[in-house]
């Protein structure tokens, strides 16, 4: 406490806690009173400091203990709220990074795939044939139909053949078939029902293979990003060979009969014939509606037949329900493309029955059955 | 007055502070109880809106707890708290246009009025008059000088801490304090000849 002996200014006293406590709380632990009286000049200084301190009082807080406790409660609630908020933000930040990382990875994978594709399309031309190359080979004016929807789409060709095009697939075909051949180009998957015309064979070009038919129903699955091409036959007879573009002149030709299939390995240009399609897991799994449904009808109401067609081709059939409610048919439609089926049904119902096709919408007009 | 806070003073600020940093809720509550009223009063000297000030002080404590892991270990707790409250109120001024009186954070008016400790003046009438006159002079000081004096002598902060709080350098803070008392002395001189007294005391 001998520090105070060096005090020369009011400020020195003002900031001395012990001095403050003597003046403001009358607690004189350090004997300020005696010390002050030791010197006259000191007494004067102390007095002035005292006056100043007394004039510098700060109003007491009017907060009670319970006010402070309440404030403390409120603060803990605020803390809880803030911590939750921070956790939330951190979580969403994590998610953001995760998303960011994932899209980064996705981008890298995409880049890699693009590189592979680039490499393949430029350096191994002799092996892989793409849809685009096939289209470029053809000099006829082609129409291209792409199915970007999630459902199958029905395409009716100029010869009455129908193609049920699966999602993410496209088909190029001439608006009208001319000459002695019918050629279409497929990327992806399609179920073909070809109208019979022995003089004009029908060819499906899909990746490295060509499927030749006269009149039949079959499925071709040829996605450009998959390692093999599949052909599955439902009715009739088809012949499959590899495309000339692949480069083998004396290619083998594989003949497929109903319920036989073929898998073509694109990497080594090999045909794998599958004679029992029920034993091939992949084929069984990918069987579409149309291949499961039976088109053999024996004394079946017309409404039921229309319903089957609707399911098979994913089309919408509008018909006069009351007029046709008592009509029953017995017919075999398995081997017919959609338009043929409709023609046969209309003919069977009655002479004044017709159909009109507009995309996926089919309208039947009828005055009732015979 | 001091005896009422005795149960708390058994732990000093820095011990409580470091316990708080480790996640001790009790230490947090003790510091809160020790300083809340004082901080609210200081806040109210910067802004008369009592509720908003209490909100600010609570927010300061909220942040201390939430970000306790990143708090510094060696601080003067009182100075830290006062400074945090000041900053937060300044921020409120900036944000709230209705609330705002000034735009710059370092020109917030210190509105506190010093009062006279009447009960302690058991002297003669003349002394009472002196004290009342001094109080009037103190309250007429520029608000920044007043705030510096308050922080120095009522809150017991060092000049360094005041400089940091008011965002000025050491010399400016020192000047603020000195000028405050100097102008008092000038006014004072005629009435109490303090100047003479001070110069004589330096012998």
Mean pLDDT of chain A: 79
Our Rg estimate of chain B from Cα atoms comes to: 19 Å
Choose one word for the global shape of chain A. elongated
The ordered string of helix (H) and strand (E) elements of chain A is HHHHHHEEEEEEEEEEEEEHHEHEEHEE
Supply the CATH architecture of the largest domain in chain B: Orthogonal Bundle
Main beta sheet strand tally, sense and closure of chain B: none
How many helix segments of chain B?
10
Main interface: chain pair and counts? A-B, 41 and 52 residues
CATH C-level category of the largest domain in chain A: Mainly Beta
- CATH topology of the largest domain in chain A, anyone? Jelly Rolls
Q: How many beta-strand runs of chain B? A: 0
Distance between the termini of chain A: 128 Å
Tell me the CATH topology of the largest domain in chain B: Rna Polymerase Sigma Factor, Chain: A
Task: Indicate the CATH architecture of the largest domain in chain A.
Answer: Sandwich
Low-pLDDT ranges of chain B? 1-9, 193-203
In terms of quaternary structure, what is this?
Answer: heterodimer
Give a structural overview.
The complex is a heterodimer of chains A (370) and B (203). The mean pLDDT of chain A is 79. The longest helix of chain A has 59 residues, at 65-123. Chain A has four domains: 2-55, no CATH class; 64-123; 131-289, Jelly Rolls, CATH 2.60.120.1440; 293-365, Phage tail protein beta-alpha-beta fold (3-Layer(bab) Sandwich). Chain A has ten helices and 18 strands. Chain A is α+β, with helices and mostly antiparallel strands and 370 residues long. Chain B is an all-alpha fold. Chain B is built from ten helices and no strands. In chain B, helix 4 (50-66) packs across helix 5 (77-95) and helix 7 packs across helix 9 (170-192). The radius of gyration of chain B is 19 Å and the shape is globular. Chain B starts with 5 loop residues before the first helix and ends with a helix. Chain B: It holds the Pfam family Sigma70_r4_2. Chain B: This is RNA polymerase sigma factor, sigma-70 family. Chain B: Residues 31-95 form the RNA polymerase sigma-70 region domain.
């Amino acid at each position: 406490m001998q520090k105070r002996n060096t005090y020369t200014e009011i400020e020195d006293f003002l900031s001395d806690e012990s001095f403050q406590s003597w003046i403001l709380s009358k607690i004189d632990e350090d004997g300020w009173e005696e010390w002050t009286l030791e010197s006259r000049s000191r007494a004067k200084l102390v007095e002035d400091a005292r006056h100043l301190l007394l004039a510098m009082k700060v109003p007491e807080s009017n907060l009670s203990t319970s006010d402070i406790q309440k404030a403390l409660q409120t603060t803990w609630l605020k803390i809880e709220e803030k911590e939750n908020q921070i956790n939330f933000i951190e979580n969403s930040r994590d998610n953001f990074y995760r998303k960011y990382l994932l899209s980064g990875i996705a981008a890298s994978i995409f880049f890699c795939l693009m590189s592979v594709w680039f490499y393949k399309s430029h350096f191994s031309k002799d092996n892989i044939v793409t849809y685009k190359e096939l289209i470029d080979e053809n000099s006829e004016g082609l129409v291209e139909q792409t199915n970007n929807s999630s459902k199958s789409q029905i395409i009716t060709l100029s010869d009455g053949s129908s193609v049920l095009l699966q999602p993410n697939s496209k088909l190029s075909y001439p608006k009208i078939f001319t000459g002695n051949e019918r050629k279409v180009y497929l990327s992806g998957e399609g179920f073909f029902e070809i109208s019979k015309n022995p003089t004009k064979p029908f060819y499906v070009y899909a990746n490295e293979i060509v499927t030749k038919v006269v009149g039949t129903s079959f499925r071709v699955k040829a996605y450009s990003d998959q390692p093999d091409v599949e052909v599955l036959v439902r009715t009739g007879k088809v012949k499959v060979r590899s495309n000339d573009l692949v480069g083998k002149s004396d290619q083998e030709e594989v003949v497929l009969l109903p319920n036989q299939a073929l898998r073509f390995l694109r990497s080594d240009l090999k045909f794998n014939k599958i004679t029992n399609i029920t034993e091939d897991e992949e084929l069984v799994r990918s069987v579409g509606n149309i291949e499961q449904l039976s088109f053999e009808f024996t004394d079946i109401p017309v409404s039921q037949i229309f319903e089957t067609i609707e399911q098979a081709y994913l089309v919408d059939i509008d018909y006069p329900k009351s007029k046709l409610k008592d009509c029953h048919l017995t017919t075999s439609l398995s081997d017919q493309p959609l338009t043929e089926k409709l023609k046969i049904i209309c003919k069977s119902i009655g002479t004044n029955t017709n159909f009109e096709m507009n995309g996926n919408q089919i309208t039947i007009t009828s005055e009732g059955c015979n | 007055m001091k005896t009422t806070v005795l149960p708390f003073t058994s732990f000093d600020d820095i011990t409580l502070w470091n316990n708080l940093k480790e996640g001790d809720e009790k230490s947090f509550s003790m510091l809160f109880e020790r300083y809340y009223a004082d901080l609210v009063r200081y806040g109210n000297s910067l802004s008369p809106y009592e509720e908003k000030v209490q909100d600010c002080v609570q927010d300061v404590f909220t942040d201390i707890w939430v970000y306790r892991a990143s708090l510094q270990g060696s601080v003067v707790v009182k100075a830290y708290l006062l400074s945090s409250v000041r900053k937060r109120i300044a921020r409120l001024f900036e944000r709230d246009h209705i609330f705002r009186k000034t735009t710059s954070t370092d020109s917030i008016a210190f509105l506190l009025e010093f009062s006279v400790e009447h009960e302690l003046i058991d002297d003669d009438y003349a002394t009472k008059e002196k004290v009342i006159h001094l109080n009037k002079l103190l309250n007429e000081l520029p608000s920044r000088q007043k705030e510096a004096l308050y922080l120095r002598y009522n809150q017991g902060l060092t000049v360094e801490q005041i400089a940091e709080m008011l965002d000025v350098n050491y010399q400016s803070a020192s000047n603020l304090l000195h000028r405050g008392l100097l102008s008092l002395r000038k006014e004072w001189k005629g009435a109490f000849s303090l100047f003479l007294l001070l110069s004589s005391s330096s012998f």
